[in-house]
Amino acid sequence: MQIDTLPPLREVISTHTLKTKKSLGQNFILDLNLTAKIARLAGSLDDHDVLEIGPGPGGLTRGLLSEGARRVVVLEKDIRCMPALEEIKAAYRNKVQIFNVDALGFDAQRHLTGPVRIVSNLPYNVGTELLIRWLTPGDWPPFWETLTLMFQKEVAERIIAAPGSKAYGRLSILAQWKANAKIVMALPPEAFSPPPKVHSAVVHLTALTEPRFPAPARLLSSTVAMAFNQRRKMLRSSLKAASKDIEMVLRDAGLEPTARAEEISLEGYCALARGLDQS
Fold first, then answer.
1. By the number of CB atoms within 10 A of the CB, which of 68, 92, 205, 240 ranks highest?
2. Spatial strand order in the sheet of 200-207
3. What integer pLDDT is reported at residue 64 of this predicted model?
4. Domains in the chain, please, with CATH?
């Protein structure tokens, strides 16, 4: 079933000679019913601007528009994709704004009108960095309401991981401190062209109005990074550079100095960051 009057994606790719580039982390989803399903996982798009990173030939873009997005702002680094995206813009009466830019160096927020949802099949080589940026703005709540993002399954599992698991780490804490996160879809390699060597998953994050527990943001991030960079060590060793009295600070935060990074809950790390800030 076609979701609009535009040609199937295989035809679009053939017409515009859009062979994927490994250097850009490109893997296209060619099933338009699947891209429409991913768009629906973002929630109601009525009266929302949507930001999409790395649209490629525009399969997800078409899904977002068919599901009622007010406007879709797309950032695409690959200039070869511009003609295909312009065809979508024309078909949907200019409800698409296209930028041929690197998403890491572009302030997309200036071109969006709230409420905003971010929905993307992110290029695997920049996905984690973009997520961290969206989770760590200068002010909270952020400009976006929700993030619905495709990652390698391993990264998706890190985002939702609980304490005590091997996947639990800095990304888990940054995401869960400020958002509700859940995996809403799993995709096998065969869902993409060309098939990647890994499985993928879609993660849906809903921004909280304020962080789950109080903590100084930069200090929390740096402390968590320090702890997990040496996750096999006890906290009194991995965090010794954070304070000359680290054992006392840990105990005051209700934490055992002999504990290891993956054993500490989000609430525990927030208490530790507050303690370090006071010390």
1. 205
2. 96-99, 71-75, 49-53, 116-121, 146-152, 200-207, 179-187
3. 97
4. 9-207 (3.40.50.150), 217-278 (1.10.8.100)
Could you tell me the two tokens for 32? 């338009």
Residue 1's pLDDT is what?
56
Distance set, CA 38 to CA 41, 150, 270 (Å): 5, 9, 33
Under 8 Å between Cβ of 276 and 251: no
Q: Which residue has the tokens 């041929």?
A: 100
pLDDT at 236: 97
Condensed to tens digits (0 to 9), the pLDDT of residues 42-63 reads 999 999 999 999 999 999 999 9
Nearest Cα to Cα of residue 67 among 30, 112, 113, 119 = 119
Question: Mean pLDDT of successive 10-residue segments in the chain (279 residues)?
Answer: 85 90 80 95 97 96 97 96 97 94 95 97 90 95 97 97 96 98 97 90 98 96 96 96 96 98 98 96
Question: Could you tell me the two tokens for 162?
Answer: 């609980």
To the question of pTM greater than 0.90 for the whole model, the response is yes
Q: Take residue 190 and report the two structure tokens written for it.
A: 């065969």
DSSP-derived secondary structure for 27-65: -B---HHHHHHHHHHT---TT-EEEEE--TTTHHHHHHH
